[in-house]
Design brief:
Layout: H1 3-29, H2 36-51, E1 55-60, H3 67-75, E2 96-99, E3 107-112, H4 122-125, E4 133-136, H5 142-150, E5 155-159, H6 160-165, E6 177-181, E7 183-189, H7 193-196, E8 199-203, H8 207-211, H9 214-223, E9 226-232, H10 239-249, E10 257-262, H11 274-292, E11 299-301, H12 304-313, H13 316-322, H14 324-377, H15 384-425, H16 428-444, H17 448-491, H18 504-528, H19 532-590, H20 596-629, H21 634-639
Parallel strand pairs: 1-8, 1-9, 2-7, 9-10, 10-11
Antiparallel strand pairs: 2-8, 3-4, 3-7, 5-6
Bound molecules: guanosine-5'-triphosphate (GTP) and magnesium ion.
Guanosine-5'-triphosphate binds near residues 61, 86, 263, 304 and 305.
Length: about 650
């Protein structure tokens, strides 16, 4: 398998090992009180996240630049034949997602083009399996696979008006009939080693087709981990190539953007020396870089077709000339390597946060046992008066602690009230209300400014809600910081500072969605001549995206609340039980029910048990930490 495939496979293996290590951790941590249920829930969330982790690559370009052929060369050369159809003229008629969903049989699912009349977004349509046509692809059956792929080429011919109703204008306005794609979207599920590791490929049709499908412009392309923009050496950078670049790629993907200059085999002129050919390729690379405004090192000259042929025929020399490997190596290290590092850092940070809550409570318990032992040892050989004095001191501590607790309850009530208000602003009901108002406004707008205004109002409200929630988070954070400080000063409960939270990321995401949306709105208005159903479908996709941001912000807020309120509570409970234990000990010594030495021995036992538990906790976490630290960048680990 090629470098890229190997890299993706090793990333998949690593993720699987990590999930297995986390699962073992969860199983064994069940016996490790206190706080074991919170730890299990937290680690459970991490496992779920890792299991659904995918790396996606979208190929975007004008038609016939060789996107499909590049997919064949990069990923499917093991099959020893051309799997994704690639031919002169327009081939890929509808966006095609290629991946493997475990637990689902091999198949191609096709969404008929007529569904464009419906107002639901593509993502919502995924929830209606009955409107997709599904064809099975038995494992390892390359013939059926190819036949399945051939379906993405299908077209149908419609009368001009019927075609226009689906968003297609004919090239020639005088034509009575228009040829349109038969399908709107294709999802191919097949068991291929690289896809099984969580790689998703998105093959797209050329410019005309991209524009009409909001899901593609608003979500599939911007949200993929890498976008490969393909140009061809024989056509150079045409006006429509630039249009694709400018509209769909340049605004996203600062990182993870790869420009491929395909078909360099066209420059392999037998009458020129290899040096001359290389110089010509270098010159074209420079020209492409200048036209797109990027560094020449970001342009990868290749011959997809020769790369595929070389791989199928095992021709090493041809493979080297195709220069496919340099592109592959860049995708492997920049895309997969970066993705893996990001995931490793994130999971490591969250794992430590989850684990440390439990650890600090255990550490506090250990410290308590040490202090209590010292306290009792100090009573050796003292008279009963001294013991009684100690007893009254602990009672005093306890009543002080109880008054702190009352204050904490007061502060918590205030925090809960604020939090409820913030969660309401981030809630589904409020969003639905705003969305409905915007829908009504969109339906009533006959002009572009009306449409713009409707979405801008909606986005402004959402942004306000996020800012309000941020404000509440700051307020709660400040209140809790005071509480942390007081409990540390008055009762020796050391918690550091509460974790802060900001929904900045979500606001940025909203800004991005709005920006892309407004940008496409104008263009779409022009091509669709204000056709209502197209505009509405477009708007539904935007609403769905905004809704996702809102939901994720709500979830983040809630999980932050738990992390900011949870630890103090756990420590307070721990402190309470320590006070109770200390008082019990001293009471028994006063009553002379137990000898002092017996109590001391008991506390030493308690401390040893806690120490064992701490050690056990570290042992449990060690395999997980090892897997994560291997890959997390050292700089970030140091600050975590
Ligand atoms: N000479 C040469 N031809 C290529 C190369 N890659 C692709 N082609 C040819 O270019 C044509 C278009 O290739 P496709 O892979 O279908 O291009 P595409 O970008 O997927 O096109 P659409 O699916 O129509 O949008 C086909 O005839 C390919 O054989 C290459 O590296 N060299
Ligand atoms: Mg194609």
């Amino acid at each position: 398998m090629a470098v890229l495939g190997e890299r993706i496979a090793s990333y998949g293996d690593w993720r699987r090992d990590l999930v297995a290590a986390l699962r073992r951790y969860v199983e064994r941590v069940a016996d490790l009180e206190p706080g074991e249920s919170a730890v299990r829930a937290g680690v459970g969330e991490l496992i779920e996240r890792l299991a659904t982790e995918r790396v996606s690559i979208a190929l975007v370009a004008e038609f016939s630049r060789g996107k499909s052929e590049l997919l064949n060369a990069l990923f499917f050369s093991d099959s020893k034949e051309r799997i994704v159809p690639s031919s002169a003229g327009r081939t890929t008629m509808c966006p095609t997602e290629i991946g493997f969903e475990p637990g689902r049989a091999g198949s191609i699912r096709l969404l008929p083009i007529e569904t464009r009349r419906r107002s639901e977004s593509l993502r919502e349509l995924r929830d209606f399996p009955e409107i997709w046509e599904e064809f099975a692809i038995p494992d390892g059956d390359a013939e059926t696979l190819r036949a399945a792929f051939a379906m993405v080429q299908q077209t149908r011919v419609l009368g001009r008006q019927a075609a226009a109703a689906l968003g297609f204008g004919g090239d020639d306005e005088d034509d009575d009939f228009v040829e349109i794609p038969r399908w709107r979207h294709a999802v191919v599920n097949f068991h291929h080693p690289v896809l099984a590791q969580g790689l998703v490929l998105i093959d797209t049709p050329g410019l005309n087709a991209i524009g009409a499908e909001p899901e593609l412009t608003l979500r599939l392309i911007p949200e993929s981990d890498a976008v490969v923009f393909v140009l061809a050496a024989d056509t150079g950078v045409t006006a429509s190539d630039l249009e694709v670049w400018r509209r769909y790629i340049s605004i996203h993907h600062g990182l993870g953007r790869f420009v491929v200059l395909n078909k360099i085999d066209g420059l392999w002129d037998e009458l020129r020396t290899p040096g001359e050919i290389d110089a010509e390729i270098a010159r074209q690379v420079e020209a492409v870089a200048a036209a797109l405004g990027i560094e020449p090192t970001r342009v990868f000259p290749v011959s997809a077709q020769k790369g595929l042929v070389a791989r199928i025929q095992g021709d090493a020399q041809l493979l080297a000339r195709s220069r496919i490997k340099r592109l592959e190596a860049a995708l492997a290290s920049e895309l997969v390597g970066r993705q893996q590092e990001i995931i490793a850092n994130k999971i490591l940070r969250e794992f430590e946060a989850v684990v440390s809550a439990q650890r600090t409570v255990l550490a506090a318990r250990r410290r308590g046992a040490l202090e209590q032992a010292a306290e009792l040892e100090g009573l050796r050989g003292r008279n009963i008066g001294r013991v009684q004095y100690m007893q009254s001191r602990i009672q005093g501590e306890r009543s002080e602690f109880e008054s702190s607790l009352r204050r904490l309850h007061g502060v918590r009530a205030v925090c809960s009230k604020h939090a409820r208000a913030a969660l309401e602003r981030l809630g589904g009901r409020r969003f639905e209300g705003a969305a409905d108002a915007a829908r009504t406004q969109v339906a009533a707008s006959h002009f572009l400014p009306g449409l713009r205004a409707a979405s801008m109002t909606l986005f402004a409200q959402l942004r306000d809600d996020l800012s309000a929630a941020d404000g509440v988070a700051t307020e709660i954070g400040t209140l809790m910081a005071t509480m942390y400080r007081d409990f540390s000063r008055d009762h020796g409960i050391a918690l550091g500072l509460p974790v802060l939270m900001s929904l900045r990321r979500h606001r940025d995401e909203l800004d991005r969605i709005e920006k892309v949306h407004l940008r496409h709105l104008g263009a779409l208005w022009l091509v669709s001549f204000g056709r209502r159903e197209l505009m509405q479908r477009f708007f539904e996709t935007v609403l769905k995206q905004a809704e996702d941001v809102r939901r994720s912000a709500g979830r983040e807020f809630q999980s932050w609340l738990r992390t900011v309120l949870g630890p103090l509570e756990a420590h307070v409970r721990e402190h309470q039980s320590q006070l109770r234990r200390r008082l019990e000990s001293i009471d028994r010594v006063v009553e002379a029910a137990d000898s002092l030495e017996e109590r001391i021995a008991e506390i030493v036992q308690l401390r040893l048990a806690v120490e064992q538990r701490l050690e056990f906790a570290d042992q449990l976490a060690a395999p997980v930490r090892r897997l994560l630290r291997e890959l997390a960048s050292t700089a970030e680990v140091a600050t975590a």
